Amino acid sequence: MEYNLVATTTFGLEGITAKELKALGYEDLKVENGKVHFEGDEMDIAIANVHLRTADRVFIKMAEFEARSFEELFQGTKAVKWSEIIPQDGVMHVVGKSVKSTLFSVPDCQSIVKKAIVTSMSEDYGVTHFSEDGPVYKIEVSILKDVVTLSIDTSGVGLHKRGYREEAGIAPLKETLAAALVLISRWKEEYTLVDPFCGSGTILIEAAMIMQNIAPGLCRNFVSETWPTIGKDIYEQVKEGAERSIKKKDIKLIGYDIDGRMLKIARSNAQKAGVSNYIEFQKRDFKEFSSSEKNAFIIINPPYGVILGEKKEVEELYKYLGMNKRKLDTWDFNILTSYEGFESPFGRKATKNRKLYNGKLKCYYYQYFDNEKIKNHGDMVVNHI
């Protein structure tokens, strides 16, 4: 069965997720704020969930229609063939949001949608009571400017939950964003990659997984695995294919942190992710950082000053970063920060910067392209399944 599928993303990552989908072989993509639309069947749902690194979730879009009254919402929802996906014992969990719409009461909208789904399924199954003790179906009703979108979540737990990170630091970076930082850097396998504030190791772990083509969803489960229309067999086929696609490249990644406890967590996370052989973690203050390598890369998510530390301390830290950049003048530096005016203490305007969101915090990704051996600024490191 063909579905209208939607990969949702954090604002700013839509284009990166679209490139991932293109690399996986999908065409006719439609990109909008926080979403990438594509077509696919049950196998494609499994492929997207297992392989996408920068998406938050994968949804089946069931319907879209205008509604300015509860009656219109009810009839529009009832018209959908829910029984094609949801079995008689399915648990129907409705969540919702409403923005700039006549129907502004989300609890009321959720209640109406649930009632309409039950009515529709009652007509199709010929029963009036549903046990709701089977697989879970989280249905999202989203109303924007009186346009209702009804979707079913196929992922379950968010896709950033890879399964390797049980613990994180004080201000953790989502795995999906960490992967994006790597994908839009120019890092290639022949160069050393350094994270001088590695914390729980997320950037380096995601980088190693990308370069070894380890699918991010290989070691976790998805809610749609429990659905009779998809099931474990399809996911097992996709995961077996992903296993066969893993590469064994010779790469070198180095992580520094001043906190020994965080390094212990980082090593444990790398071990769980299957990339501990490629990452060297060292206890070291960034101020002691030095390297004799001619060409290498830094991808870093340093303290912002908003969450950690004081403004003066953070500015001092950014000055140290700038001093190191001047010494390592043939390295590429990639720095994510929400600190306004970062370039001033750093001492140099970025070659390129783009707006990204770390959670709800607006950040900028400052990129300094100085490794002259890397010619294609716009290339994105994406492996194929």
TrEMBL record:
InterPro entries: DNA_methylase_N6_adenine_CS, RlmKL-like_Mtase, RlmKL-like_Mtase_CS, RlmL_1st, SAM-dependent_MTases_sf, THUMP_dom
Protein name per its UniProtKB record: THUMP domain-containing protein
Pfam families: RlmL_1st, THUMP, UPF0020
PANTHER family per UniProt: RIBOSOMAL RNA LARGE SUBUNIT METHYLTRANSFERASE K/L (PTHR47313), RIBOSOMAL RNA LARGE SUBUNIT METHYLTRANSFERASE K_L (PTHR47313:SF1)
Keywords attached to this entry: Methyltransferase, RNA-binding, Transferase
Keyword RNA-binding: yes
Domain THUMP: 44-154
